[in-house]
Specification:
heterodimer, A: alpha/beta, 6-stranded mixed β-sheet, 30% helix, globular, B: mainly alpha, MetI-like fold, 11 helices
Chain lengths: 227, 231
């Protein structure tokens, strides 16, 4: 079953993106050096960037189709997004941050789900704090929890570990690996090592084009991290 | 010396009522204009920006006169509002509130606009991915983050409204109990033989109210700021 199908074109000044790939459930890695268009593609899936032309479908839902003039607004897509810099709301407590997506999506409060997510990410002791008081690793864990609690159909992670040092990366990656069975993910990174641990399939990008797609063996023949 | 006479109380209460109503009614308009100026590019934006700031640079008497010919009984807008909606501004306290709100408007808009411009828009994007539509992004992210600017703008507008004199007296005169605010009362007392003591009392009251507004706004702004950084 193919669940996410993408075929998009977008021109951004001198740079252009023309990318086409499908991804099944599991974790699809978008792998490429910085400037290869990874983040823009993820933003198109989320609806934050509108493609010039193309089509994006998730399961059987058309999110974007330039021919049929379909463009589901961001807030109706139900796609969780973990940003590189966390982007927690500074004026809300960690608890209110975690609860934000559920409230905005109009879901009933689910204390069991909240407890499960909080335990899973080990953020119970942070719940009453403000994001300004959290460490980088704590912030990213809360960001993952916030995206999960809106019960997304798909989880986008854009270099979620890039702002962290190596030790913190090793600390957080296992949480993400354990998420693999819960929700399908698109995981952006230029770290082969990181992707080797989490990805189930790989899409390689270069200069806005897909240069290869397949299994994790695509990571093995590369020496290591792309700059 | 500090026995405030009943008619002085009337002027004080009237001033407070006019300033509070003027600032509260101006606030939603101020937010809308500030948001438009901060976030949207549109044809005539510079013109709108200029018009909003006009009361700040025009002689207040001119603003009052323009209000008189537009919102007066025989003015274009004034006659329409009076005939169809029963709203009368001329020589009423509501007219004073209109004049004060208009004079305070540029001071209201500027801090709110700056606060909105300073907000990281990526936070609004994040809110949208979490299911918030435009309005809920505005209410749950943009405005709370702009709160210090909202407080600053509101207090500046309130203070301006409280002290407004020129536009108000030109538009609605200074009728005791209806449109005679503290400022107008002080002015008229200084023109009256033996009015110095009463004028002095009202001056003290004006200073106390202005200081209190500043202290309260400072306290609110600090609390709002603390919420972003502390626990």
């Amino acid at each position: 079953m193919s669940m996410l199908a993408i075929d998009v074109e977008k021109r951004l000044g001198a740079f252009s993106i023309a990318a086409r790939f499908n991804s099944a459930s599991g974790v699809t890695a978008l792998y490429g050096r910085s400037g290869s268009g990874k983040t823009t593609i993820v933003n198109m899936i989320a609806g934050l960037v509108t493609p010039d032309r193309g089509r994006i479908t998730l399961d059987d839902v058309v999110l974007f189709d330039s021919d049929r003039r379909v463009n589901v607004p961001v807030h109706h897509r139900r796609i969780g997004y973990v940003f590189q810099e966390g982007r927690l709301f500074p004026h809300l407590s960690v608890k209110a941050n975690l609860d934000y997506g559920r409230r905005m999506c109009g879901l009933d409060p689910d204390a069991a789900q909240m407890r499960r997510t909080v335990d899973f990410l080990d953020i119970g002791h942070l719940i009453d704090r403000r994001p300004g008081k959290l460490s980088g690793g704590e912030r990213q864990r809360v960001a993952v929890g916030r995206a999960l609690l809106m019960r997304p159909r798909l989880l986008l992670l854009d270099e979620p570990l890039a702002s962290l040092d190596n030790e913190r990366r090793r600390e957080i990656l296992p949480y993400l690996v354990r998420l693999r069975d819960e929700v399908p993910m698109v995981y952006v990174s230029h770290h082969a090592g990181e992707l080797r641990r989490i990805a189930t399939s790989v899409v390689r990008l270069d200069g806005g084009r897909v240069t290869a797609s397949g299994g994790t063996e695509l990571l093995n023949d590369t020496d290591d991290d792309l700059a | 010396m500090f026995d405030i006479a009943p008619d002085e109380w009337v002027a004080i209460a009237l001033s407070l009522r006019i300033a509070i109503v003027a600032s509260l009614v101006a606030l939603p308009f101020g937010i809308a204009v500030a948001w438009l100026l901060a976030r949207k590019e549109f044809w005539g934006k510079t013109l709108i920006d200029g018009i909003v700031h006009l009361p700040l640079v025009l002689p207040p008497v001119v603003t009052g006169y323009l209000l008189l010919i537009t919102f007066g009984r025989r003015g274009l807008v004034g006659s329409f509002l009076a005939d169809y909606l029963g709203i009368v501004f001329s020589f009423r306290w509501t007219g004073a509130a209109l004049a004060c709100g208009l004079m305070g408007f540029p001071l209201l808009v500027r801090p709110i606009r700056l606060a909105i411009e300073a907000i990281d828009r990526r936070l609004e994007d994040a809110a949208a991915t979490l299911g918030a539509n435009r309005w809920r992004v505005l209410l749950t992210v943009t405005l709370p983050l702009a709160l210090p600017g909202l407080i600053a703008g509101f207090v500046l507008c309130f203070a301006k409204a409280l002290g407004e004199f020129g536009a108000t007296i030109t538009f609605v005169s200074a009728i005791p109990g209806e449109t005679q605010t503290i400022s107008a009362a002080i002015y008229s007392l200084t023109q009256t033989p033996g009015g110095d003591a009463a004028a002095g009392r009202l001056v003290v009251v004006a200073v106390v109210i202005a200081l209190a507004a500043l202290v309260v706004s400072e306290w609110l702004a600090r609390r709002a700021g603390m919420r972003f950084h502390g626990e």
